[in-house]
Design the sequence.
């Protein structure tokens, strides 16, 4: 018994700590969910009810008809199609570039490898908005304005994904790869048949984060597209906002529908979100 704190002290502190942690977690959860819940509530309001003072929290008479009316007011079928094609294509391109570059930085010895990798990481410090004009000028020079190529090719290389894949490859033992090389396998065979299958958790994480990021992309598609037929879903929703007037219930209804695929994807693959946070902390 010598040297141990009194039992009653531990019994008093432990429940209090749990209670404080629970209160803090609930407060954080409410602060995160409140904007989404108010968005859903606004989507069911009357067009003028939004401007009441004080602003209503719950609609007096829920208008579920706002959803079909909003989705037919603009060509949202086309918006979803563009977002889907763009997101899937960017995911496939990012998986290829991230896996190959990450493997090269982790396994292949070449002059200046560490310096090149540091240069890659340094680009993360550059604000994305600074690159908008140079990217636009390049895309315009290639004639890719208002096309899928302009939406996809500029997003095909993600430095964060390359970093994540490198960290994962560094954490994988080299025994199987070395054994394959001894048996005469080429570097591409080692990469495609051994390294890539072992990296499926990291690849799934990259695919998930890339899809979510691309689905909710707004600024670059807004700049690089001109016609209604090439607008993705986020840019399409903004069409409800005018210079002098905005139909907030319609805009919120469209936003709720647009976020449903992301919510479903998160519920289905939430472990990969957690895995992605863990992988970024792997030491190289």
Sequence:
């Amino acid at each position: 018994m010598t040297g141990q704190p009194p039992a009653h002290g531990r019994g008093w502190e432990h429940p209090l700590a749990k209670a404080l942690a629970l209160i803090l977690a609930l407060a954080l959860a409410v602060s995160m969910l409140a904007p989404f819940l108010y968005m859903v509530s606004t989507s069911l309001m009357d067009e003028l009810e939004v401007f009441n003072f004080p602003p209503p929290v719950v609609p007096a008479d829920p208008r579920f008809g706002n959803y079909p009316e909003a989705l037919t007011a603009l060509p949202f079928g086309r918006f979803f199609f563009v977002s889907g094609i763009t997101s899937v294509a960017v995911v496939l391109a990012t998986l290829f570039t991230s896996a190959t570059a990450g493997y090269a930085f982790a396994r292949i010895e070449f002059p200046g490898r560490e310096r090149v990798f540091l240069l890659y990481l340094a680009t993360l410090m550059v604000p994305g908005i600074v690159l908008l004009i140079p990217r636009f000028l390049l895309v315009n020079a290639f004639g890719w304005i208002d096309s899928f190529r302009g939406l996809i090719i500029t997003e095909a290389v993600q430095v964060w994904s390359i970093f994540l894949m490198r960290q994962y490859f560094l954490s994988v033992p080299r025994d199987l790869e070395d054994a394959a090389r001894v048996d005469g396998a080429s570097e591409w065979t080692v990469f495609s048949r051994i390294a890539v299958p072992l990296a499926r958790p990291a690849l799934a994480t990259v695919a998930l984060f890339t899809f979510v990021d691309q689905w909710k992309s707004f600024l670059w598609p807004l700049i690089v597209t001109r016609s209604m037929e090439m607008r993705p879903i986020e840019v399409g929703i903004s069409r409800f906002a005018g210079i002098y007037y905005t139909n907030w219930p319609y805009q919120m209804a469209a936003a709720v529908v647009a976020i449903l695929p992301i919510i479903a994807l998160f519920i289905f693959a939430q472990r990969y979100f957690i895995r992605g946070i863990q992988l970024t902390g792997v030491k190289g």
About this structure: The mean pLDDT is 86. The chain is about 70% helix and 0% strand.
